[in-house]
């Protein structure tokens, strides 16, 4: 029986796959070790929704047989993984993190689950999330069937939402990688708070068939990993057209770092105010140091800012209207009252009353946002900004009163980049870039649609020079 | 078999944080109706701000959304 050290639990998936191929340990031994760890430490972080030990061990034995016979399937083969509990796995409970759905089961696998299986990944569990991925707008981190997501770096802090369990599990070495979803910040925020590398793909690149819908025009599924390189490998496995997803772009993604543009040919847009004034005071040195590393990559740095458009109001109107339509049966039945956050209940009910006029106006402005961002990207290839302007918030802190800088800066900078990027369907990568008060910080790289290879190449080089993605939390 | 080392202090912090946080943080104790009025008001304010945006006649909604 193999024994495993932290070097294995915190290895990247490419390192794990290499050791599996070298027969240092079997896929079954590895899956068993990760299942033990996930079942033991996952509940301490409120990160575990469901262990899939039995099916994982069966799959791992199958993979071991394939490896023995020389049937090699790529870098995910034999590597354990876990998924946010809004993705269906046939017959198993899929709770969407919400009490009214705690007994829900589907008869089919989500497309991404099928694709991971085909790539040889070993699914060990489903991970906790903010209920209904935050639909309606929640006020406290406790808005989840499993309790508030606790941050492995400091258990009095939140792991972020709504992919709370996905980020916490990867950060704590409970799974080498996980899938999450983002409508407006749900991959980037927990990735930043927990110090893992998260990729929000271009809208339509990854099928959402079998995933809970929150906002049909904004939902994306993406990986949370230990490195930018790992994100590239996972994205290649899960991307691709799918006739079952009306939003599918019908495109595939091939991770081809060998063909990436030279970094010296890239133009990187940034706003000094994002690094010097918007962040909380104790986080500024880390963000400024990260900007210097990016500057040192040799790319052309161009000062820029987002066009002056109402990103937050457009996003909240669209997401509220679509989410309340998705969950109308839940609201009408009265079961919405079982949700764990009163603000969220009120938000879902109120969203039903949004007039078509307001929704259409928001969607028309969204069209303008998309065009204006396209113009912005005529002058730059990538935008860089802090992913969040502070470290993880307290686990009992109210979330709808965000901290503001002492004096709001006059310059807009790229402050609304999460809302803007999601409205325009742009890809983004969250990269750990330092610590403040012992908590992780991150920068985000945002590119044009379907330019994941460019932001990943930049991310890989940033991580080669900094090593922040290799830091491990003190617990569990 | 893997062993995860955790000190008694870490365990106490973990259990304490978990228990405190799991003790449902009830938002304000205000009646649900008040909260509904407040949230509906927030949505109306957002809509009012969007009304101020000068929208060209040719701007179509991003319906079949493609980035």
- Binned strand content of chain A: 5-15%
Structural class of chain A: alpha/beta
Shape call of chain B: elongated
Q: Please state the average pLDDT score of chain B.
A: 70
Number of helices of chain B: 2
Strand tally of chain B is 0
Largest Cβ-defined interface: A-B, 69 and 40 residues
Low-confidence stretches of chain B: 8-28
* Radius of gyration of CA atoms of chain A, rounded to a whole number: 21 Å
| SSE order of chain B | HH
Q: Give the number of helices of chain A.
A: 16
Distance between the termini of chain A: 23 Å
Regarding quaternary structure, how should these chains be classified? heterodimer
Give the low-pLDDT segments of chain A. Answer: none
Describe the sheet with the most strands of chain B. Answer: none
Which strand order does the major sheet of chain A show? 1-3-2-6-8-7-12-13-11-9-10
Radius of gyration of chain B: 24 Å
Q: By helix and strand content of chain B, what is the structural category?
A: mainly alpha
Can you summarize the main beta sheet of chain A? 11 strands, mixed
| Mean pLDDT over the full residue set of chain A | 96
Number of strands of chain A: 13
SSE layout and pairings?
The complex is a heterodimer of chains A (476) and B (67).
Chain A: H1 6-9, H2 13-21, H3 27-41, E1 48-51, H4 53-68, E2 80-84, H5 111-118, E3 122-127, E4 150-151, E5 154-158, H6 164-171, E6 178-182, H7 188-194, E7 197-200, E8 220-225, H8 228-238, E9 267-270, H9 272-276, H10 284-295, E10 300-303, H11 311-326, H12 328-333, H13 342-351, H14 356-379, E11 382-386, H15 417-423, E12 428-436, E13 439-447, H16 452-466
Parallel strand pairs in A: 2-3, 2-6, 9-10, 9-11
Antiparallel strand pairs in A: 1-3, 4-5, 6-8, 7-8, 7-12, 11-13, 12-13
Helix pairs in contact in A: 3-4, 6-7, 8-16, 11-13, 11-14, 11-15
Chain B: H1 8-22, H2 32-51
